Amino acid sequence: MNNTTQTPVTIIGLGRMGQALASAFLEAGHPTTVWNRTASKADQLVADGALLAPTVGDALKAGSLTIVCVTDYQAMHVLLGADDIELDGMTLVNLTSGDSAQAREAAQWAEQRGARYLDGAIMAPPQAIGSVGAVILHSGSQEDFEAHETTLGALGTVTYLGADHGLASLYDVAGLAMMWSVLNAWLQGAALLRTAGVDAATYAPFAQRMATEVAGWLPGHAEQIDRGSFPAEVASLETHVRAMAHLIEESEAVGVNAELPKLIKAMADRAIAAGHGGEQYPVLIEEFGKPRDN
Ligand code: NAP
Question: Is the CB of 79 under 6 A from ligand 1?
Protein backbone atom coordinates (compact mmCIF):
# COMPACT_ATOMS: atom_id res chain seq x y z
CA MET A 1 0.00 0.00 0.00
CA ASN A 2 1.17 3.55 -0.73
CA ASN A 3 2.30 4.94 2.62
CA THR A 4 3.04 8.54 1.68
CA THR A 5 -0.34 9.82 2.89
CA GLN A 6 -0.74 7.71 6.00
CA THR A 7 -0.02 9.07 9.49
CA PRO A 8 3.45 8.17 10.77
CA VAL A 9 3.23 6.09 13.95
CA THR A 10 5.65 4.95 16.62
CA ILE A 11 5.35 1.74 18.61
CA ILE A 12 7.28 1.45 21.87
CA GLY A 13 7.37 -2.12 23.17
CA LEU A 14 7.69 -5.07 20.81
CA GLY A 15 6.54 -7.99 22.90
CA ARG A 16 3.94 -10.34 21.44
CA MET A 17 1.35 -7.58 21.36
CA GLY A 18 3.59 -4.68 20.31
CA GLN A 19 4.86 -6.68 17.32
CA ALA A 20 1.27 -7.39 16.25
CA LEU A 21 0.37 -3.69 16.57
CA ALA A 22 3.38 -2.63 14.51
CA SER A 23 2.60 -5.25 11.83
CA ALA A 24 -0.98 -4.02 11.53
CA PHE A 25 0.18 -0.42 11.04
CA LEU A 26 2.72 -1.52 8.43
CA GLU A 27 0.07 -3.53 6.59
CA ALA A 28 -2.24 -0.51 6.60
CA GLY A 29 0.56 1.53 5.01
CA HIS A 30 1.59 3.72 7.95
CA PRO A 31 5.24 4.75 8.12
CA THR A 32 6.08 2.87 11.32
CA THR A 33 8.95 3.52 13.72
CA VAL A 34 9.60 0.99 16.46
CA TRP A 35 11.69 0.73 19.60
CA ASN A 36 12.16 -2.12 22.04
CA ARG A 37 14.55 -2.74 24.95
CA THR A 38 15.60 -5.98 23.24
CA ALA A 39 16.30 -4.60 19.78
CA SER A 40 16.37 -8.01 18.04
CA LYS A 41 12.57 -8.27 18.41
CA ALA A 42 12.36 -5.59 15.71
CA ASP A 43 14.20 -7.70 13.08
CA GLN A 44 11.14 -9.04 11.26
CA LEU A 45 9.36 -5.68 11.42
CA VAL A 46 12.41 -3.93 9.96
CA ALA A 47 12.47 -6.53 7.18
CA ASP A 48 8.80 -5.66 6.58
CA GLY A 49 9.54 -1.93 6.32
CA ALA A 50 9.62 -0.54 9.88
CA LEU A 51 12.31 1.86 11.01
CA LEU A 52 14.13 0.89 14.21
CA ALA A 53 14.90 3.98 16.32
CA PRO A 54 18.17 3.88 18.27
CA THR A 55 16.63 5.38 21.44
CA VAL A 56 13.19 5.89 22.95
CA GLY A 57 13.64 9.64 22.49
CA ASP A 58 14.30 9.20 18.76
CA ALA A 59 11.28 6.90 18.47
CA LEU A 60 9.02 9.51 20.07
CA LYS A 61 10.18 12.21 17.65
CA ALA A 62 9.47 10.06 14.58
CA GLY A 63 5.72 9.54 14.75
CA SER A 64 2.86 11.98 15.20
CA LEU A 65 1.16 9.27 17.25
CA THR A 66 2.97 7.01 19.73
CA ILE A 67 1.56 3.73 20.97
CA VAL A 68 3.07 2.27 24.12
CA CYS A 69 2.54 -1.42 24.82
CA VAL A 70 4.81 -2.88 27.49
CA THR A 71 4.34 -5.29 30.39
CA ASP A 72 2.95 -2.83 32.92
CA TYR A 73 2.68 0.86 33.85
CA GLN A 74 5.89 0.68 35.85
CA ALA A 75 7.79 -0.27 32.69
CA MET A 76 6.13 2.58 30.82
CA HIS A 77 7.20 5.07 33.51
CA VAL A 78 10.75 3.68 33.46
CA LEU A 79 10.90 4.17 29.69
CA LEU A 80 9.23 7.56 29.34
CA GLY A 81 10.00 9.08 32.74
CA ALA A 82 13.69 9.84 32.18
CA ASP A 83 14.57 13.55 32.34
CA ASP A 84 15.95 13.59 28.80
CA ILE A 85 12.69 12.29 27.29
CA GLU A 86 10.73 15.09 25.67
CA LEU A 87 6.96 14.50 25.73
CA ASP A 88 5.82 18.07 25.08
CA GLY A 89 3.40 18.12 22.13
CA MET A 90 3.34 14.30 21.78
CA THR A 91 0.20 12.18 21.61
CA LEU A 92 0.56 8.96 23.60
CA VAL A 93 -1.86 6.06 23.40
CA ASN A 94 -1.02 3.66 26.20
CA LEU A 95 -2.30 0.17 25.41
CA THR A 96 -0.44 -1.39 28.35
CA SER A 97 -2.77 -3.28 30.73
CA GLY A 98 -3.26 -1.77 34.17
CA ASP A 99 -5.90 -0.57 36.61
CA SER A 100 -8.04 2.56 36.49
CA ALA A 101 -5.98 4.43 39.12
CA GLN A 102 -2.78 3.80 37.16
CA ALA A 103 -4.48 5.07 34.00
CA ARG A 104 -5.68 8.28 35.69
CA GLU A 105 -2.26 8.88 37.26
CA ALA A 106 -0.52 8.27 33.94
CA ALA A 107 -2.85 10.75 32.25
CA GLN A 108 -2.01 13.43 34.82
CA TRP A 109 1.70 12.65 34.56
CA ALA A 110 1.67 12.85 30.74
CA GLU A 111 -0.41 16.02 30.69
CA GLN A 112 1.93 17.70 33.19
CA ARG A 113 4.69 16.98 30.71
CA GLY A 114 2.75 18.55 27.87
CA ALA A 115 1.59 15.35 26.16
CA ARG A 116 -1.89 14.39 25.02
CA TYR A 117 -2.77 11.04 26.55
CA LEU A 118 -5.32 8.37 25.74
CA ASP A 119 -5.53 5.20 27.76
CA GLY A 120 -6.54 1.95 26.10
CA ALA A 121 -7.24 -1.70 26.68
CA ILE A 122 -6.84 -4.46 24.11
CA MET A 123 -9.60 -7.06 24.27
CA ALA A 124 -8.00 -9.50 21.83
CA PRO A 125 -4.98 -11.79 21.37
CA PRO A 126 -2.07 -10.64 19.16
CA GLN A 127 -3.13 -12.81 16.20
CA ALA A 128 -6.47 -10.95 15.95
CA ILE A 129 -4.89 -7.48 15.75
CA GLY A 130 -5.66 -5.81 12.43
CA SER A 131 -9.03 -7.57 12.08
CA VAL A 132 -12.51 -6.30 13.02
CA GLY A 133 -12.60 -9.00 15.72
CA ALA A 134 -9.94 -7.12 17.72
CA VAL A 135 -11.80 -4.73 20.01
CA ILE A 136 -9.64 -1.95 21.45
CA LEU A 137 -11.14 0.34 24.08
CA HIS A 138 -10.05 3.96 24.56
CA SER A 139 -10.71 6.62 27.17
CA GLY A 140 -9.54 10.21 27.58
CA SER A 141 -10.19 13.33 25.54
CA GLN A 142 -12.80 12.73 22.82
CA GLU A 143 -11.11 15.32 20.63
CA ASP A 144 -7.80 13.43 20.85
CA PHE A 145 -9.51 10.13 20.13
CA GLU A 146 -11.34 11.50 17.11
CA ALA A 147 -8.13 13.06 15.80
CA HIS A 148 -6.53 9.59 15.66
CA GLU A 149 -9.53 7.29 15.28
CA THR A 150 -8.85 6.52 11.62
CA THR A 151 -5.19 5.72 12.27
CA LEU A 152 -6.02 3.57 15.31
CA GLY A 153 -8.63 1.79 13.17
CA ALA A 154 -5.76 -0.11 11.50
CA LEU A 155 -5.55 -2.15 14.72
CA GLY A 156 -9.14 -3.39 14.79
CA THR A 157 -12.49 -2.15 16.05
CA VAL A 158 -11.64 0.93 18.08
CA THR A 159 -14.14 2.21 20.63
CA TYR A 160 -14.32 5.43 22.63
CA LEU A 161 -15.75 5.15 26.16
CA GLY A 162 -15.53 8.62 27.71
CA ALA A 163 -13.32 11.37 29.12
CA ASP A 164 -12.38 9.56 32.36
CA HIS A 165 -9.02 7.93 31.57
CA GLY A 166 -9.83 5.05 33.94
CA LEU A 167 -12.77 3.81 31.87
CA ALA A 168 -10.83 1.59 29.45
CA SER A 169 -9.26 -0.32 32.37
CA LEU A 170 -12.62 -0.64 34.15
CA TYR A 171 -14.38 -1.94 31.03
CA ASP A 172 -11.47 -4.34 30.56
CA VAL A 173 -11.95 -5.98 33.98
CA ALA A 174 -15.76 -5.82 33.69
CA GLY A 175 -15.44 -7.77 30.45
CA LEU A 176 -13.19 -10.31 32.14
CA ALA A 177 -15.71 -10.69 34.99
CA MET A 178 -18.38 -11.44 32.39
CA MET A 179 -16.14 -13.91 30.60
CA TRP A 180 -15.15 -15.89 33.70
CA SER A 181 -18.69 -15.91 35.08
CA VAL A 182 -20.06 -17.43 31.88
CA LEU A 183 -17.17 -19.91 31.63
CA ASN A 184 -17.49 -21.01 35.26
CA ALA A 185 -21.26 -21.47 34.97
CA TRP A 186 -20.70 -23.56 31.85
CA LEU A 187 -18.13 -25.74 33.65
CA GLN A 188 -20.49 -26.24 36.62
CA GLY A 189 -23.16 -27.52 34.26
CA ALA A 190 -20.72 -29.67 32.28
CA ALA A 191 -19.51 -31.28 35.52
CA LEU A 192 -23.09 -32.00 36.61
CA LEU A 193 -24.12 -33.50 33.28
CA ARG A 194 -20.96 -35.57 32.97
CA THR A 195 -22.11 -37.54 36.04
CA ALA A 196 -25.05 -38.77 33.91
CA GLY A 197 -22.82 -39.63 30.92
CA VAL A 198 -23.67 -36.48 28.93
CA ASP A 199 -20.54 -35.17 27.26
CA ALA A 200 -19.70 -31.47 26.99
CA ALA A 201 -20.36 -31.37 23.24
CA THR A 202 -23.91 -32.62 23.76
CA TYR A 203 -24.53 -30.08 26.53
CA ALA A 204 -22.93 -27.12 24.69
CA PRO A 205 -25.91 -26.06 22.49
CA PHE A 206 -28.23 -25.93 25.54
CA ALA A 207 -25.63 -23.97 27.54
CA GLN A 208 -25.17 -21.53 24.66
CA ARG A 209 -28.92 -21.03 24.40
CA MET A 210 -29.16 -20.31 28.14
CA ALA A 211 -26.27 -17.83 28.02
CA THR A 212 -27.90 -16.02 25.09
CA GLU A 213 -31.31 -15.99 26.80
CA VAL A 214 -29.87 -14.58 30.04
CA ALA A 215 -27.82 -11.98 28.14
CA GLY A 216 -31.13 -10.74 26.72
CA TRP A 217 -32.27 -9.81 30.25
CA LEU A 218 -29.44 -7.32 30.78
CA PRO A 219 -31.07 -4.16 29.36
CA GLY A 220 -34.14 -4.63 31.61
CA HIS A 221 -31.95 -5.30 34.64
CA ALA A 222 -29.86 -2.24 33.75
CA GLU A 223 -33.00 -0.06 33.91
CA GLN A 224 -33.74 -1.34 37.43
CA ILE A 225 -30.13 -0.82 38.58
CA ASP A 226 -29.98 2.72 37.17
CA ARG A 227 -33.39 3.57 38.74
CA GLY A 228 -32.46 1.92 42.06
CA SER A 229 -35.87 0.24 42.13
CA PHE A 230 -36.30 -3.54 41.86
CA PRO A 231 -39.95 -4.63 41.64
CA ALA A 232 -40.24 -8.42 41.20
CA GLU A 233 -41.84 -8.28 37.76
CA VAL A 234 -40.63 -11.77 36.80
CA ALA A 235 -39.41 -13.53 39.97
CA SER A 236 -38.43 -12.56 43.49
CA LEU A 237 -34.98 -13.10 44.94
CA GLU A 238 -36.56 -15.63 47.36
CA THR A 239 -37.69 -17.72 44.38
CA HIS A 240 -34.15 -17.62 42.98
CA VAL A 241 -32.67 -18.69 46.32
CA ARG A 242 -34.85 -21.80 46.46
CA ALA A 243 -33.46 -22.81 43.05
CA MET A 244 -29.91 -22.02 44.23
CA ALA A 245 -30.39 -24.40 47.17
CA HIS A 246 -31.50 -27.03 44.67
CA LEU A 247 -28.33 -26.48 42.59
CA ILE A 248 -26.17 -26.91 45.71
CA GLU A 249 -28.03 -30.06 46.81
CA GLU A 250 -27.80 -31.61 43.35
CA SER A 251 -24.09 -30.77 43.06
CA GLU A 252 -23.36 -32.37 46.42
CA ALA A 253 -25.59 -35.37 45.73
CA VAL A 254 -23.81 -36.27 42.48
CA GLY A 255 -20.38 -35.47 43.93
CA VAL A 256 -19.34 -32.34 42.05
CA ASN A 257 -17.89 -29.11 43.43
CA ALA A 258 -20.52 -26.90 45.09
CA GLU A 259 -18.28 -23.90 45.96
CA LEU A 260 -19.57 -21.62 43.19
CA PRO A 261 -23.31 -22.25 43.85
CA LYS A 262 -22.66 -21.73 47.59
CA LEU A 263 -20.98 -18.38 46.93
CA ILE A 264 -23.88 -17.28 44.73
CA LYS A 265 -26.41 -18.31 47.39
CA ALA A 266 -24.43 -16.68 50.23
CA MET A 267 -24.68 -13.30 48.49
CA ALA A 268 -28.40 -13.73 47.84
CA ASP A 269 -28.97 -14.86 51.46
CA ARG A 270 -27.33 -11.67 52.71
CA ALA A 271 -29.57 -9.56 50.47
CA ILE A 272 -32.62 -11.42 51.79
CA ALA A 273 -31.43 -10.88 55.39
CA ALA A 274 -31.21 -7.17 54.54
CA GLY A 275 -34.89 -7.25 53.58
CA HIS A 276 -34.69 -7.62 49.78
CA GLY A 277 -36.22 -11.10 49.38
CA GLY A 278 -39.35 -9.80 47.67
CA GLU A 279 -37.42 -7.80 45.08
CA GLN A 280 -35.99 -8.81 41.71
CA TYR A 281 -32.53 -10.31 41.10
CA PRO A 282 -30.67 -7.08 40.16
CA VAL A 283 -31.17 -5.87 43.76
CA LEU A 284 -28.00 -7.90 44.37
CA ILE A 285 -26.09 -4.90 42.96
CA GLU A 286 -26.14 -3.68 46.58
CA GLU A 287 -24.05 -6.75 47.56
CA PHE A 288 -21.70 -6.37 44.59
CA GLY A 289 -21.31 -2.66 45.20
CA LYS A 290 -19.55 -2.89 48.56
CA PRO A 291 -16.36 -4.55 49.76
CA ARG A 292 -16.38 -7.75 51.79
CA ASP A 293 -13.15 -8.99 53.32
CA ASN A 294 -13.85 -12.62 54.17
P1 NAP B 1 5.37 -9.53 26.37
O2 NAP B 1 5.42 -10.35 25.13
O3 NAP B 1 5.81 -10.14 27.65
O4 NAP B 1 6.21 -8.18 26.09
C5 NAP B 1 6.49 -7.26 27.13
C6 NAP B 1 7.09 -6.01 26.53
O7 NAP B 1 7.37 -5.08 27.60
C8 NAP B 1 8.42 -6.26 25.80
O9 NAP B 1 8.53 -5.33 24.74
C10 NAP B 1 9.43 -5.92 26.91
O11 NAP B 1 10.69 -5.59 26.41
C12 NAP B 1 8.75 -4.71 27.52
N13 NAP B 1 9.24 -4.39 28.86
C14 NAP B 1 8.88 -4.98 30.02
N15 NAP B 1 9.52 -4.40 31.06
C16 NAP B 1 10.30 -3.43 30.53
C17 NAP B 1 11.19 -2.47 31.09
N18 NAP B 1 11.41 -2.39 32.40
N19 NAP B 1 11.82 -1.62 30.24
C20 NAP B 1 11.59 -1.68 28.91
N21 NAP B 1 10.76 -2.56 28.32
C22 NAP B 1 10.12 -3.42 29.12
O23 NAP B 1 3.90 -8.99 26.65
P24 NAP B 1 2.75 -8.69 25.58
O25 NAP B 1 1.94 -9.92 25.39
O26 NAP B 1 3.31 -8.00 24.40
O27 NAP B 1 1.84 -7.69 26.42
C28 NAP B 1 2.08 -6.29 26.42
C29 NAP B 1 0.87 -5.62 27.05
O30 NAP B 1 -0.29 -5.93 26.26
C31 NAP B 1 0.60 -6.10 28.48
O32 NAP B 1 0.19 -5.03 29.29
C33 NAP B 1 -0.53 -7.10 28.27
O34 NAP B 1 -1.35 -7.26 29.41
C35 NAP B 1 -1.30 -6.45 27.11
N36 NAP B 1 -2.14 -7.44 26.39
C37 NAP B 1 -1.57 -8.58 25.91
C38 NAP B 1 -2.40 -9.52 25.29
C39 NAP B 1 -1.82 -10.82 24.76
O40 NAP B 1 -2.61 -11.71 24.45
N41 NAP B 1 -0.51 -10.93 24.60
C42 NAP B 1 -3.79 -9.28 25.17
C43 NAP B 1 -4.31 -8.08 25.66
C44 NAP B 1 -3.50 -7.16 26.28
P45 NAP B 1 11.76 -6.78 26.07
O46 NAP B 1 11.32 -7.38 24.77
O47 NAP B 1 13.08 -6.08 26.01
O48 NAP B 1 11.67 -7.77 27.22
Answer: yes
The finding on whether 80 has its CB within 6 A of some atom of ligand 1 is no
Could you give the C-alpha distances from 37 to 22, 70, 108, in angstroms and in order?
A: 15, 10, 25
**β-strand partners of 160:** 138
Q: Are residues 155 and 24 in the same domain?
A: yes
Number of domains forming the structure of the chain: 2
Residue 293 lies in a domain: no
Residue 1 lies in a domain: no
120 lines ligand 1 (CB under 6 A): no
Residue type, 42: A
Rounded to 10 degrees, the C-alpha dihedral 195/235/289/249 comes to -30
Q: Of the residues 12, 55, 70, which should be mutated to test ligand 1's pocket, given the most ligand atoms within 8 Å of the CB?
A: 70
pTM of the model: 0.92
Burial class (CB in 10 A: 0-12, 13-18, 19+), 119: buried
Question: What does the pLDDT look like over 232-267, one tens digit per residue?
Answer: 999 999 999 999 999 999 999 999 999 999 999 999
CA nearest to 90, candidates 105, 70, 69, 112: 112
Does the Cβ of 38 fall within 6 Å of ligand 1? yes
Q: Render pLDDT for 137-152 as a digit per residue (tens, 0 to 9).
A: 999 999 999 999 999 9
What average pLDDT does the structure give for the chain? 96
Instruction: Tell which one of 10, 14, 17 to mutate to probe ligand 1, the residue whose CB is within 8 A of the most ligand atoms.
Output: 17
